[in-house]
Structures
1.
Amino acid sequence: MPRYLINFDTSRIERVDSDVVVVGSGVAGLSAALEISKQFDVALVTKGELRETATWYAQGGVATAVSSEDSPRLHLKDTLEAGAGLCNKDAVDVLVNEAADRIDGLVRLGIKFDLQGDRIELSREGGHRLARVLHSGDATGSEIEATLIRTVDAWKSIRVFENRFALDLILHQGHCRGVICLDKLSGQVVLHAAKAVILATGGAGQLYSVTTNPPVCTGDGMAMAYRAGAILSDMEFIQFHPTALDNELTPRFLITEALRGRGAYLRDCNGKRFMVGRHPLAELAPRDIVSQEMVRVMHRCGGGPVYLDATHIGEEVLKDRFPTIWARCYENGINIAKDLIPVRPAAHYTIGGIKTDLNGLTSIPDLYATGEVACTGVHGANRLASNSLLEGLVFSKRIADTIVHKLADGDNYSEPDFFVSYKRERPNMDVDVRKERTWLQKLMTEYVGVVRSEEGLKFALSQLEEKEKILEVEFSTKEGFELQNMLYIAKLIAKSALSRRESRGVHYREDYPEPSDDWLLHLEHRFMEDNIAEPSIFLPGV
Ligand code: FAD
Ligand code: SIN
């Protein structure tokens, strides 16, 4: 496998210098960039327009212990319980204890969370023992993203490069010193050189045909960090959201868990509530349990969807509290006050990613990762609902503080001029990129989805191996590079899923249906040029 997606020579391409380059414009990238730009020069690179992010689509909200009955300790308890034994407790401590400060920061920027009288209104979601989720209607993500973008525009302190696709990380003397990018408009390759690089490129939900993730979520950051030698961890853990609207679209429209928090039921094809008796929290059990049960019920029902029933909640409440869902279902011919909503699980969140420490630092000096691309360890084997916007906010602030501190101290950065080049024979091959992407998405959904088995995973891996020649091709379009990144990440997910011979959190193996204490460990990957090696095993905390 090539180390870089393209052949290049940095002495021959345009170079843009800044103190820090941030890749990605979701909640994680924008919040890190804003914080650092108070003192240092930041270039923000994003592959589409600023708002093309998963963040924009977030519905439910941000989990934070703000009510008088709640506390960071209770939030920690629910997070650890959902994480099924694999959370890094120190990281969860950081998450829950720094949450309220980050919420204050959002409110200061002008983000409006819903109020009930003069108090913040909280909703309840799966795995939370009490109402803890701050929200802006059912469109919390767009409220946060739009406010952060407005702040970037108003402060004018960040150089923004839209439609610029980050291809690969550049290392010099073992430190990360920049990113080579393809500029979509000019077609030119550009080097963004910096003293530190922050990857905030989001998840890889687009590896699946049934997904809630928008088209930008193709795992690019994970793939480029992997090629650069960073450790990737926990790749087998892909979270499936139970209630995506059942239709043929990619992405699928999400029906927020907050609707179940407001009282909606899940019913099978015979109208029976199937989560009652299955878990003490019934429809509000953690997502892994609900999704896995749904797959069993769908199988019993001949493969069709299950149904979300909100008809007893009342039209006024539904229209007022869930206006986006009301409108989108209405467009699809569903009046949620009267009709059942057909739903099925969809790939939703990439729990694994680039391994970081508590300050977002990866295993490569001066390379940081934040948001969904990172694996901080807060989610363990299953993410607690509405903990990910929060994770981006909390760890981006810690990264910003770390970098600002380091740069203010004079840093040890002493080689601003460096040149790197890469040349490799590339085969001439016609690739129908769109067709291959669709093929990959179907393969992953069928064999590396909610329910997995040795036979299915081996089949998926053999199919992926046959496509490896695509990784050698030098493409010239974003779509081609995305396909290559998706192929790298698909293989890592499938390899880890095959290695983990147990069921834990979101990883369910029908041939090993129970968790095993032998597997209270993490699987990690490190790139070796020309090979995708077996994952290595690391014990928690190592
Ligand atoms: P994103 O917001 O996905 O941003 C990634 C950015 O990186 C984008 O700007 C993208 O263009 C850019 N990028 C990617 N690759 C490249 C490249 N090669 N070059 C340049 N730029 C690149 N979480 C919650 O906590 N609460 C919720 O209520 C909630 N609801 C959700 C609903 C939906 C439908 C979805 C899909 C997710 C939801 N999540 C929720 C999860 C949460 O939205 C995401 O985990 C979070 O927004 C990720 O933020 P991020 O900044 O890491 O990545
Ligand atoms: C939802 O609103 O159900 C999604 C919340 C999340 O993914 O955290």
2.
Amino acid sequence: MKRKVTKAIFPVAGLGTRFLPATKSIPKEIMTLVDRPLIQYAIDEARAAGIKEFIFVTSRGKGALEDYFDHSHELESTLRKAGKEDLLEALRDTNMESGAIAYIRQHKALGLGHAVWCARRLIGQEPFAVILPDDVIAAEKPCLQQMVEAHAETGGNMVAAMEVPSEKTSAYGILDIRDDMGALVSVKGMVEKPAANTAPSNLAVIGRYILTPKIFQHLNRLKSGAGGEVQLTDAIAEEISRSNNVYGFRFRGQRFDCGSKAGFLQATVAFGLAREELHEEFIQFLIGMTATRKAAE
Ligand code: UTP
């Protein structure tokens, strides 16, 4: 029987060095796109996919992230008295049910694979999702929901995948495709950051995964191997070599790499323009900026 996916791991223990000095005191995941922190986009996507248990792998200095999900009774009562129903509604979206969130500590930033491994005791025998909140995906149907629906048919392990230009393959894990079925591909290998001329395809893995608990056995072995970071990609590659049940899923939507400055700015523009109340003023501003720059060139 195929098990439902009800747990998600959010690895948020990275150092976020690309956003220093901001990340000296603010977790990257609390940085805002328009008016919502990155983590809120990830939580909303997980909820839409039917996730009930939210496991955060955190580290030192991530207190603001943990506090973000606390109910703010004082603020809520002030807003209620002032009749600010719309703001109350926005706050309600951030409230999490008691017991729905777990925080696990990663004591040292030993890599994404290690961060996922830290959550092993909270997972049990069922498949689970992994969401990297720096990858923000604008989509009509949220990306993880698309994946959970596809996973109900395939079972096994699934990674979100998107086509990238050849000159960009060296920035991603790239899939070696066995069988291309359209949205779904079955995978016979995975190569980390290959140069353009050695990449087995243009299909890159991004930060959404549905994995089986067997991944923890591979992470265990990798962890006790040579020093350095423990890569999630290596554990998935190990699973590919042992089984026939790893799929790539071409999601429908636009992904923004909010772990990089350029990606974060692009997402800010896209999500700002998508807001009805901001659209007109913002687009006029952008048109004006572009015209001024063109004139100056
Ligand atoms: P990144 O590769 O973006 O690293 O991690 P980072 O530390 O967050 O950022 P930079 O590169 O220093 O700017 C991808 C995801 O894996 C998590 C991060 O929090 C992010 O969600 N991660 C990474 C961990 O949880 N632990 C780690 O040891 C490494």
